[in-house]
Amino acid sequence: MESTRRAAQAPAFAPAPSVAQRNVEGYLMAAFPWYGLDEAYAGPRWLMQVGTAADGTVEHGATGHGEQPSLRLEADPHDQRFAVVVTVASRPKRQSADGTGTLEATSVSSAAWLAGSGLLSCTWPTHMERSLRQDWLDQQSAIAWDLADHLGEEGWSSLTLPVDGVPTPFHYRDSAYGWVLAGTTGNDVHLGCYGRGLSAYGLGFSVIDDLTAYAGQTDPAPH
Q1: Distance separating alpha carbons of residues 218 and 85, to the nearest angstrom
Q2: Alpha helices in the chain (DSSP H)
Q3: 216 vs 84, which has greater pLDDT?
Q4: In 3D, which of 63, 51, 55 has the Cα closest to residue 4?
Q5: Contact between residue 61 and residue 26 where contact means Cβ atoms under 8 Å apart
Q6: What's the predicted TM-score (pTM) here?
Q7: How far apart are alpha carbons 107 and 94 in whole angstroms?
């Protein structure tokens, strides 16, 4: 999980401002299926960037739904409505690409950490001075890391949502900044999700068969 934490830098979850900047190729290189909200969701969809290992293997990525989160001071974060689905490849404990160590296995906690850090990367008190933002982000990220390591304990509740039409248990946590949930699918990937303004209780997830709705492409290779 430590390797996943190092890979989860905030820029990996910053919404791309234009179609040209969206990392479509990274999504198409993944050896695992991507997930998004199911067909019951009729709003906008958009791609975010993927996370890769040292050897270039795609490890995780996210798909956005709703309004792209904004950090502009004039934007009221409580008015923003979005849900971001994080897909994490299931990986066993393995040797690092440079052969100098080992990488921890991914787990549902990995998905919870990525979702929690993703929520923090697009949410911060607008009254805070920018010079203090990194200190705040470091502090909150440490808390999110600890929470992800203790799924099922105090602060988390259980929530069952459909994944590919199958009722699936998730760990769920709500906060002043938004909500986070994490679970595992029958497709051997871990799912995380974070959002604000949209209720998590009414969501459903499914494999993305065609990235067109997300990337604005006319003929993307399906996953």
Answers
A1: 23
A2: 2-7, 24-29, 108-121, 130-148, 212-215
A3: 84
A4: 51
A5: yes
A6: 0.78
A7: 14
